[in-house]
Amino acid sequence: MQSFILRHKTQLTIISGALIAAGLVARFAFHSQPAYAAAFIAASIIGVLPILIQAVQALRVRVMSIDVLVSIAVFGAFLIGSWDESAIVTFLFLVGGQIERYTLNQTRSAINALTDMAPQSAAVRRADGTFETVPVDDVHVGDIVKVTTGDRIPVDGTVMSGTGLVNESAITGEPIPIGKAAGSSASAGTLLDDGMLTIRADTVGEDTTFGKIIELVENAQDSKSKEERFIDRFAAYYTPAVLIIAVIVGLVTHRVDLAITMLVLGCPGALVIGVPVSNMAGIGNGARHGVLIKGSEVTHRLSSADTFVFDKTGTITVGVPQVTDVRRYDEDGTPVANDTGNGAGGAHIGSFEETKDVAVRDSSVPDVSALDAGSGPAHDDVVRYLVGVESQSQHPLAKAIVRYFGDIPVPQVDEVSVVTGGGISAVHDNHRILVGSPRFLEADGIALTSSMRENASELEMQGDSLVAVAVDGSVRLILGIRDRLRPGVAEDITRLRRLGAKTIVLLSGDNQRAVDLMTAKLGFDRAIGGLLPDEKAAVISGLRDGGHRVVFVGDGINDSPSIALADVGIAMGNGADVAIDTSDVVLADSDFSRLPHAYGLVKRTVRNMRENIAIAVGTVALLLSGLVLTTWLTMAVGMFVHEASVLAVILNGMRLLRYRTDRNHGTRHWNIRKLDTYQGQPRSVIDTVTA
C-alpha cells in the first residue's frame, strides 16, 4: 500500500488540488460550509498520506526531515479543526516535491544518452584478410578495424591506411572535421563523415577517451546525489525544538489544547511555503528569460559560486564556421586592392577584427563584381565558380562559403571530383577549377607567390582555416574561415564580475594560438588550449580542491564530464542532449547574455528565501512568546498573525517575478535584442532605450 501511494504522488497531488478548488467553489459560490469542510478534509487526508509515509521512513533512520514537520502541522490542524490550513500546506508541499523529482529524473537520463552514442560493434580483420563485425567488447588491443563513411570509430588507435574526414566534436568540441591518413591518431566515439579508414586498436573499451567520458559523468553524478536540501538541514534542528517545547508546555500547564496550539503555531505554513514560493518564483522568472534552473538545490549552489569556467567552441563562440577574410588576386598572382583592402597584403573583405562588431552594411551580399580581373575570368565569375563547386559539398567549410556569398547565380559545374581530406576539382566553361587548402593546390603543381604565402601565414596566425581557389592554374582567392565570438561576450563577462564572479577561466580543445587570439580582449584570468575532456575535468577538480566554487559552461558531448563534475554545470540550449541532461542550468537558444541574468537571479532568490525564513521564524517566535507571556494572544489572534505571515512570504516571493538584469548594469535602461544581417548572416544587435 505504501509503495502504491508513493508511486502515485502526482495523481494524489492533482486530486488534492481539485478538492481544494471544489471546496472554495462550494463556500464562495454556493455558501455551503459542510461541502467546504468535507472537500478540505478529504484534500488534507489525501495530501498527507505520501508525506506521512516519508516522515515515518525518515524517523526510522533517525532523520527529522521536513516531512515530519508537515505531518505534525497537519495533525495539529486537524485537532483544532483548521482543515483549510492543512489542505493548502500539504498541496503546496507536494507540488514542490514534484518539481524536484522531475529535474532529478531528467538528470539521470544523461548516462543512457551517452551509452547510446558509444559504438556497439566493430568490423575486425581476420587472419584471411576479411572483416567480421563483432561486438565492440570483443575488440582487443592490436586488432585492425575498418571504419566506413557514417560509422563511429570504435577504438582509440592509429590509422594504418585510407583517408577520411573525422568529426571529433564528441571529444574536442571543435566543429570542423579533421583529415585523417596513415599515421594519424583516431579516437573512439568520433564520427567518420567521409572516406574509409583501417585503424589499429591501441586502447579499447572503458579505457578509450569516450569510455572515460562516460565514467567521469557517472562518478560526478553519484557525488552530487549525496547533497541535502537546505530546508531539510534547517528542519533537523527546528522541528525537534518545537516538539520539545510543546510537550513541556503540555506537561507543565496540564492543558492539552495549549500544547496543541503551540505546536500548530510553531509549525506555520510560512516556513513550509516560504522557500518553495521563492524557489518557484525564481525558476519562473528564469524560464521567462530563457534560463532553465533544475531545482532549489541548484539555486543555492549557483548563488555561492565564485569561479566561472567556459568551453570555447559553441559557448563563447557561435559554433558554426564563418568566412572572416577574403584575399583576391589577378590571373598573374598580383593582389587586387579595393576600398576595403590592405594594399599589397592582398585585397580582403571583412577581416575578423573588422567584421565582428562592425555596423550592419546596406547589402547582405559582398560586392564581388567591382574588381577588374584582366584577361582571365572576372572575379564575380571566380566567386560563382567557387559557390557552384562548394554547393555540392557537405563539408562545414563549404557550407560557410555558400552562406557567406549569399544568393548569387550558381553555375552547374561538371566533372566534380572530391579528393578526401584535400579538396575538390571541377570543370566549367572549359575552365579547370581547384578548391582546397593551399597545400592541396601546391600538390597539384600550382605555385603560390610570396604575397600569397604571406597572406596565408597571416590568416593562419589569426587561427583561420584556409580555402584557396585556383582557375586554370592561377590562384584567384584565399579565404580565411573561423568560428566567431558571440555578440556581447566581453560585456557579459564584465557583468558576471560585477555580480560577484572572482575568477573566470577558458578551456578549449583548440590550439593555444587560436585560443589566445580569440580571448585577447575578453578579460579571462586564464585561457588554456589543447585540452582533452579528461584534462578539462582535471582542471575543474583542481579548482574545487583549491576551495573555488566552480561553474562550468559548455555545449558539447565532450563537455559533459566537466558539466557534471563542477559545483554547477550550465549547458547552452542548442548544444548536445547529453550536456543538457547532465547540466544543472540550461540557457535557452544558446544565448550567452542569459548567463548574467541567471547568476544575478539565483543570488536574489537565495536572499529572498532567507528573508522568508526570517519572516516565518520571527512570526513563530512572536506567537510562542506571546502565548506564554501574555493572556491576550488567543487562537484567533494567533491564526490571524499566522495567516498574515503566510501572505507576507508569498508577496515577498512574488517580487522575484519582476527581477531582471541588463547589459547596462546599474542603470535604468531596457536592452532590446533584435536580429539584423551582416554579409548574409544573422547578427544580434542591441538597441538601448531609456526607460
How does this structure look, described?
The structure is a single chain. By secondary structure, the chain is an alpha+beta fold. It is built from 23 helices and 22 strands. Strands 1, 2, 3, 4, 5, 6 and 7 form a 7-stranded antiparallel sheet that branches. A hairpin with a 2-residue loop joins strand 21 (669-678) and strand 22 (681-690).
Low-confidence stretches: 106-111, 220-228, 338-375, 663-691
Task: Give the overall pLDDT as a whole number.
Answer: 77
What is the C-alpha radius of gyration, as a whole number of Å? 32 Å
Largest sheet: 7 strands, antiparallel
How many helices? The count is 23
Helix content: 40-55%
| Structural class by SSE content | alpha+beta
Strand content: 15-25%
Between the first and last Cα atoms, what is the distance in angstroms? 59 Å
Quantity of strands, as a count: 22
Shape: elongated
Question: What would a concise description of this structure say?
Answer:
By secondary structure, the protein is α+β, with helices and mostly antiparallel strands. The protein has 23 helices and 22 strands. The strands form four sheets. Strands 1, 2, 3, 4, 5, 6 and 7 form a seven-stranded antiparallel sheet that branches. A seven-stranded mixed sheet has the order 8-20-19-18-9-16-17, sandwiched between helices.
Q: Keyphrases for this structure?
A:
691 residues, alpha+beta, 7-stranded antiparallel sheet, 7-stranded mixed sheet, 23 helices, 48% helix
Would you spell out the secondary-structure blueprint of this structure?
Elements: H1 2-7, H2 9-28, H3 33-60, H4 66-79, H5 83-117, E1 121-125, E2 131-135, E3 144-148, E4 156-167, E5 178-180, E6 185-186, E7 191-203, H6 209-224, H7 230-253, H8 256-266, H9 269-288, E8 291-293, H10 296-303, E9 307-311, H11 312-316, E10 322-328, H12 352-355, H13 379-390, H14 396-405, E11 414-419, E12 423-428, E13 431-436, H15 438-443, H16 450-461, E14 465-471, E15 474-482, H17 489-499, E16 503-507, H18 512-519, E17 526-528, H19 533-545, E18 550-554, H20 560-565, E19 568-572, H21 577-582, E20 585-587, H22 594-629, H23 635-654, E21 669-678, E22 681-690
Parallel strand pairs: 9-16, 9-18, 16-17, 18-19, 19-20
Antiparallel strand pairs: 1-2, 1-3, 3-7, 4-5, 4-6, 4-7, 8-20, 10-15, 11-12, 12-13, 13-14, 14-15, 21-22
Helix pairs in contact: 2-3, 2-5, 3-4, 3-5, 4-5, 4-8, 5-6, 5-9, 7-8, 9-22, 9-23, 10-22, 13-14, 17-22, 22-23
